[in-house]
Amino acid sequence: MDIFTAIKERRSCRNFLPDPVSNEALEKILEAGTWAPSAANNQPWEFIVVTNGEIKKDIFTESEKCRKILFEKSGWKWVDRYKLGFLNEAPAIIAVIGDPKKTGADMFLEGGGLAYQHGCAAAIQNMLLAAHALGFGTLWFTLFEKEYIRKILKIDQAKEALALICLGRPVAVSSLTPRKGVKEITAYVR
Protein backbone atom coordinates (compact mmCIF):
# COMPACT_ATOMS: atom_id res chain seq x y z
CA MET A 1 0.00 0.00 0.00
CA ASP A 2 1.30 3.44 -0.94
CA ILE A 3 2.20 5.49 2.16
CA PHE A 4 0.04 8.46 1.14
CA THR A 5 -2.94 6.16 0.65
CA ALA A 6 -2.33 4.60 4.06
CA ILE A 7 -2.13 8.03 5.71
CA LYS A 8 -5.33 9.26 4.08
CA GLU A 9 -7.38 6.08 4.50
CA ARG A 10 -6.46 5.04 8.06
CA ARG A 11 -9.32 5.64 10.50
CA SER A 12 -9.98 5.01 14.16
CA CYS A 13 -11.85 1.75 14.62
CA ARG A 14 -14.25 1.07 17.49
CA ASN A 15 -15.93 -2.10 16.18
CA PHE A 16 -13.79 -5.20 15.83
CA LEU A 17 -14.40 -8.72 14.56
CA PRO A 18 -13.43 -11.43 17.07
CA ASP A 19 -10.77 -12.93 14.76
CA PRO A 20 -7.40 -13.16 16.56
CA VAL A 21 -4.41 -11.22 15.25
CA SER A 22 -1.72 -13.63 14.06
CA ASN A 23 1.73 -13.55 15.63
CA GLU A 24 3.18 -12.82 12.19
CA ALA A 25 0.98 -9.72 11.78
CA LEU A 26 1.73 -8.58 15.33
CA GLU A 27 5.48 -8.90 14.70
CA LYS A 28 5.25 -6.79 11.54
CA ILE A 29 3.21 -4.11 13.30
CA LEU A 30 5.52 -4.04 16.33
CA GLU A 31 8.61 -3.92 14.11
CA ALA A 32 7.14 -0.91 12.30
CA GLY A 33 6.97 0.81 15.70
CA THR A 34 10.67 0.16 16.30
CA TRP A 35 11.60 2.01 13.11
CA ALA A 36 10.18 5.32 14.36
CA PRO A 37 12.51 8.27 14.83
CA SER A 38 13.45 9.27 18.37
CA ALA A 39 15.65 11.87 20.04
CA ALA A 40 19.29 10.75 19.91
CA ASN A 41 17.97 7.42 18.57
CA ASN A 42 17.23 6.47 22.20
CA GLN A 43 14.25 4.33 21.13
CA PRO A 44 12.34 5.08 24.37
CA TRP A 45 9.52 2.59 23.77
CA GLU A 46 8.52 -0.83 24.97
CA PHE A 47 5.38 -2.70 23.96
CA ILE A 48 3.12 -5.04 25.90
CA VAL A 49 0.65 -7.07 23.84
CA VAL A 50 -2.56 -7.87 25.73
CA THR A 51 -4.86 -10.63 24.47
CA ASN A 52 -6.04 -11.90 27.88
CA GLY A 53 -9.79 -11.27 28.25
CA GLU A 54 -9.62 -10.66 32.01
CA ILE A 55 -6.94 -8.00 31.65
CA LYS A 56 -8.89 -6.35 28.83
CA LYS A 57 -11.94 -6.36 31.12
CA ASP A 58 -9.89 -4.67 33.86
CA ILE A 59 -8.72 -2.02 31.38
CA PHE A 60 -12.35 -1.49 30.31
CA THR A 61 -13.55 -1.13 33.92
CA GLU A 62 -10.86 1.44 34.76
CA SER A 63 -11.43 3.37 31.54
CA GLU A 64 -15.17 3.44 32.20
CA LYS A 65 -14.45 5.08 35.58
CA CYS A 66 -12.27 7.65 33.82
CA ARG A 67 -14.98 8.29 31.23
CA LYS A 68 -17.53 9.02 33.98
CA ILE A 69 -15.13 11.37 35.77
CA LEU A 70 -14.41 13.16 32.48
CA PHE A 71 -18.13 13.61 31.83
CA GLU A 72 -18.77 14.94 35.34
CA LYS A 73 -15.87 17.40 35.17
CA SER A 74 -16.29 18.54 31.57
CA GLY A 75 -20.03 18.33 31.01
CA TRP A 76 -19.31 17.41 27.39
CA LYS A 77 -22.38 15.58 26.14
CA TRP A 78 -20.47 13.39 23.69
CA VAL A 79 -18.52 11.82 26.58
CA ASP A 80 -21.72 10.46 28.13
CA ARG A 81 -22.54 8.73 24.82
CA TYR A 82 -18.99 7.43 24.24
CA LYS A 83 -19.05 3.63 24.61
CA LEU A 84 -15.88 1.74 25.49
CA GLY A 85 -16.92 -1.80 24.54
CA PHE A 86 -14.16 -1.90 21.92
CA LEU A 87 -11.68 -2.44 24.77
CA ASN A 88 -13.23 -5.86 25.34
CA GLU A 89 -13.87 -6.56 21.63
CA ALA A 90 -10.42 -5.78 20.23
CA PRO A 91 -8.57 -9.09 19.81
CA ALA A 92 -5.32 -7.38 20.87
CA ILE A 93 -4.31 -4.25 22.73
CA ILE A 94 -0.75 -2.97 22.45
CA ALA A 95 0.34 -0.91 25.46
CA VAL A 96 3.02 1.62 24.51
CA ILE A 97 5.38 2.20 27.41
CA GLY A 98 7.76 5.18 27.45
CA ASP A 99 11.02 5.53 29.33
CA PRO A 100 11.59 9.13 30.53
CA LYS A 101 15.31 8.37 31.02
CA LYS A 102 15.57 8.01 27.24
CA THR A 103 14.29 11.48 26.45
CA GLY A 104 17.43 12.94 24.89
CA ALA A 105 19.18 16.29 25.27
CA ASP A 106 15.90 18.14 25.79
CA MET A 107 16.08 17.05 29.46
CA PHE A 108 18.54 19.90 30.02
CA LEU A 109 16.29 22.60 28.57
CA GLU A 110 13.53 24.50 30.33
CA GLY A 111 10.25 22.70 29.78
CA GLY A 112 12.13 19.76 28.29
CA GLY A 113 12.16 16.10 29.06
CA LEU A 114 9.29 15.22 26.73
CA ALA A 115 11.14 13.92 23.68
CA TYR A 116 10.61 10.32 24.83
CA GLN A 117 6.86 10.93 24.49
CA HIS A 118 7.35 12.30 20.98
CA GLY A 119 9.36 9.22 20.00
CA CYS A 120 6.65 6.94 21.38
CA ALA A 121 4.01 8.92 19.45
CA ALA A 122 6.01 8.35 16.25
CA ALA A 123 6.17 4.62 17.05
CA ILE A 124 2.40 4.59 17.57
CA GLN A 125 1.80 6.27 14.22
CA ASN A 126 4.08 3.77 12.48
CA MET A 127 2.14 0.89 14.04
CA LEU A 128 -1.24 2.41 13.11
CA LEU A 129 -0.15 2.79 9.48
CA ALA A 130 1.40 -0.69 9.33
CA ALA A 131 -1.75 -2.23 10.80
CA HIS A 132 -3.90 -0.39 8.24
CA ALA A 133 -1.66 -1.57 5.39
CA LEU A 134 -2.22 -5.15 6.64
CA GLY A 135 -6.01 -4.71 6.71
CA PHE A 136 -6.44 -4.15 10.45
CA GLY A 137 -8.35 -1.46 12.29
CA THR A 138 -6.80 0.42 15.19
CA LEU A 139 -7.64 2.98 17.83
CA TRP A 140 -5.12 5.18 19.65
CA PHE A 141 -6.58 5.20 23.17
CA THR A 142 -5.52 7.29 26.20
CA LEU A 143 -8.57 7.46 28.50
CA PHE A 144 -7.04 5.63 31.48
CA GLU A 145 -5.24 6.30 34.74
CA LYS A 146 -1.57 5.57 34.18
CA GLU A 147 -1.02 4.18 37.67
CA TYR A 148 -3.79 1.63 37.22
CA ILE A 149 -2.39 0.46 33.88
CA ARG A 150 1.05 0.30 35.52
CA LYS A 151 -0.36 -2.00 38.20
CA ILE A 152 -2.25 -4.45 35.98
CA LEU A 153 0.48 -4.69 33.35
CA LYS A 154 3.29 -4.75 35.94
CA ILE A 155 5.11 -1.79 34.37
CA ASP A 156 8.38 -0.69 35.96
CA GLN A 157 7.88 2.34 38.25
CA ALA A 158 10.43 4.35 36.24
CA LYS A 159 8.42 3.96 33.02
CA GLU A 160 5.04 5.22 31.88
CA ALA A 161 2.08 3.81 29.95
CA LEU A 162 1.48 6.45 27.28
CA ALA A 163 -1.20 4.86 25.10
CA LEU A 164 -3.09 1.72 24.23
CA ILE A 165 -3.55 0.65 20.63
CA CYS A 166 -6.71 -1.41 20.12
CA LEU A 167 -6.10 -3.77 17.19
CA GLY A 168 -8.18 -6.15 15.13
CA ARG A 169 -10.08 -6.66 11.91
CA PRO A 170 -12.70 -3.90 11.54
CA VAL A 171 -16.40 -4.77 11.33
CA ALA A 172 -16.75 -2.09 8.63
CA VAL A 173 -14.57 0.52 6.96
CA SER A 174 -15.09 3.96 8.48
CA SER A 175 -15.90 6.88 6.24
CA LEU A 176 -13.49 9.72 5.60
CA THR A 177 -13.50 12.49 8.17
CA PRO A 178 -13.00 16.11 7.19
CA ARG A 179 -9.58 17.67 7.57
CA LYS A 180 -8.43 21.27 7.55
CA GLY A 181 -6.71 22.31 4.36
CA VAL A 182 -2.95 22.72 4.40
CA LYS A 183 -3.26 26.40 3.49
CA GLU A 184 -5.48 27.02 6.54
CA ILE A 185 -2.92 25.76 9.03
CA THR A 186 0.43 26.55 7.44
CA ALA A 187 2.56 29.69 7.60
CA TYR A 188 5.85 30.09 5.79
CA VAL A 189 8.73 32.14 7.20
CA ARG A 190 11.10 32.93 4.38
Keywords:
190 residues; alpha+beta; 8 helices; globular
Q: Approximately what portion of the residues adopt beta-strand conformation?
A: 5-15%
Structural class: alpha+beta
How do the strands of the widest beta sheet line up side by side? Answer: 1-2-4-3
Helix content: 40-55%
| Helix-strand string | HHEHHHEHEHEH
Shape: globular
Q: Overall mean pLDDT score?
A: 95
The major β-sheet equals: 4 strands, antiparallel
Radius of gyration: 17 Å
**SS field, number of helical segments:** 8
Counting DSSP E segments of at least 2 residues, the number of strands comes to 4
By oligomeric state, this entry counts as single chain
Give the N-to-C terminal Cα separation.
35 Å
Spans where pLDDT lies below 50 across 5 or more residues: none
